[in-house]
Amino acid sequence: MKYKPCGTFDQTYEQDNALVRTRFRWAMLSALLVFIFVLFPCLAGDYLLDVAINIGITIIAVIGLQIIVGFTGQISLGHAAFMAVGAYVSAMLSFHLNWSFWIAFPVAALTSGLMGLLVSIPALRIRGFYIAVTTLVAHYIIMWSILHGGWVTGGLTGMSSHEVTIGGFSIGTERRYYFLTMVLTAAAIFLTVNLTRTKIGRAFVAVRDNDLAAEFMGINVFKTKVLAFFLSSVYAGVAGSLLAHYQGIITVEQFTLMDSIWMLGMIIIGGHSVLGAIMGVCFLKVLQQIILIVAPTIGQLVPSLAGSAVAGSMQLFFGAVIILFLVFEPRGLSHRWRLTWSIFDLWPFPY
Fold first, then answer.
1. Cβ proximity of 117 and 229 under 8 Å
2. Which structural domain range is residue 131 located in?
3. pTM recorded for the entire structure
């Protein structure tokens, strides 16, 4: 349900469909943008900037996965593999052909999208659990191909990529790369939010709710699902390309099956919306940093949990968090946020 503050009435369709409706919300959005693009990069050190860059890259990837899972109602376990395609294509074009990031980046995103298209065509001939199995098989095929790609992909040693430049200006530091990542993250959020308001986005939701009813309404269900996989893989390719040029060198260990599973977990925690994807990523990433900070203290208090045991315990803890959300908050943090915000929107009549 779409709540509006008491006393706010829509008189036109444009007002009803506006993303930001009131002056207060415009002020809140402006304050958030000032914090992200002005205050935080000025006050944060390299470590926090590195965390923020990784959060931004993950948000782009998870928003892409949200198009499949949250909007279209399909399951994909190969999202990390599509990120790997984007990362390796961008790195190979940069390393072997000495292409600029600004040329390699869109090519990598499109290649990842075409790979998702190639996987989705046979996968979507079947339904339910078998779609997840097909994307799981695609993950291992893509990873095997990269690992045995010889000098083209770098094999076990990985593939290096050049730093991003604009003319003669290098974007090699954390602070400069932070701005690039945040701009692309904001663009991904804006485009996806508007996608849900288009005919294509409404077709995604119709297929998710009831694909048989959607087909009776004239929606080409197969074409809609394939398009969702294509767009999702494009987002994954964008995230992979950004990661490749930020890290400088990539290996197959950076794109594991567990990464795909954790991205699904982020959607479960956040909820099936763009806001849910953002909240899920931020929640798990911040929680991970908190655990890393307190891990030495835990190791001193409980020696059996020192070292590698902490990493294993972190996986168990994250799994327990996802289970708790499934049991007590199955609709995610975004749903709880909307319920809380509606109290203020409907004041003085929140009941």
1. yes
2. 44-255
3. 0.91
